[in-house]
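Take a specimen:
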Amino acid sequence: MTQLFIAGAWRDGVSVRANINPSDTSDIVGHYAQADRNLAEEAIAAARAAFPAWSRSTPQVRADALDRIGSEILARKDELGALLSREEGKTLPEGIGEAARAGQIFKFFAGEALRCGGERLPSVRPGLDVEITREALGVVGIITPWNFPIAIPAWKIAPALAHGNCVVFKPADLVPGSAWALAEIISRAGLPVGVFNLVTGPGSQVGQALLDSPDVDGITFTGSTVTGRRVMEATSRRFARMQLEMGGKNPLVVLDDADLAQAVFCAIQGGYDSTGQRCTASSRFIVEKGIYPAFVKAVSEGLAALKVDDALKPGTDIGPVVDGSQLAQDLDYIGIGRAEGARLVFGGERLSREKTGHYLSPAFFVDTDPAMRIAREEIFGPVACAIPADNYEHALALANDTEYGLSAGICTSSLKHASHFKRNVEAGMVMVNVPTAGVDYHVPFGGRKASSFGPREQGRYAEDFFTIVKTAYTGA
């Protein structure tokens, strides 16, 4: 049984949770300690006590620690990727790729720790100098989802530590293995006692303690929009800083002049890879009518060629849905789509494999009305729909007709339409002739509307959340 990491020591929890492999529900990945509110508050207190010294540590000390973490992750990426795929269900190549990305993120922010900037300006008043500096925010509560169980924690923990903050990390209950492995690596990186803490456990206990505590200066959260609203309400009541990354209902626009093979690749990779369990996944294919019949046929043929099986098995293209609850939700939406009158042309069925798991064939609806629930609500599974568009202007209007605004894509050979789309689509990230899912770690990540709130994640823009700007005047 694994333990919690609080104040530099491994601690037992108040209960234990089994970690079940979604590719083989008879396989128990491990048993993981669960914290309650009291243990979470102990972790918060440890982080608060460690903050004064850590926030004033030298950039080199922080950079060296992050570099050690990144180096070990990269050296163990195959092992960590296999664990990730076993507990979450994404294919082994995807799991290894995610683990490598986590290592690269820590390496990047090791460099950012040394690139701490500032400004010195003359005042508009004589005899005064002005200094503008950044200081660490304080104690940061980090709440992460199950779909990227090592990369998302990495892109929150690494900048927090790089900029001198102390961390209390609460991972999703479904994926404690990757979180624990990451915490174990961090625990040996030479950080002072209390700088980093791991508290696995239910949101009603651990998460709520982070939201309520006056000693937590900021919350960075990734998860559903419904939960994000609750995080916002609780955090804003005490004027703590918040960073929320939430849902998406991302459009992929396909114009008549698009390269069909490229558009189909973007649709299948963006919509169905990682079992569609990505906030940046394309779930609405908005297709101009001239190319619509060929696109529908080609996507259906492409989906038929995909192999749905055990995440660790060589040749698997799509792994299982993460758990039974998510599978039930996916199947419910497939039923809703049929009842609403959309035409299911491929998939949407439970699958049996050699081992009992949460397998679902990728579902593709066509002739979808934009008012249908399957075209408006985030499903978070291998379910996508095609919506016909009269022309580019109609397609753009359909793309923007959503409460979300995370990622949007367009497939076209027209520079005019690509340029107009980049400027006018209501999304935080825009892709031209590439899938909507898949972003670099050194550039900002985030959206608008109900998809995101607060400063951007990743890259140099991460400092906007994890630091506070201070302006200081000095007289002669």
Notes: The chain has two domains: 4-246+451-475, 250-432. Residues 347 and 466 are 44 Å apart (CA to CA).
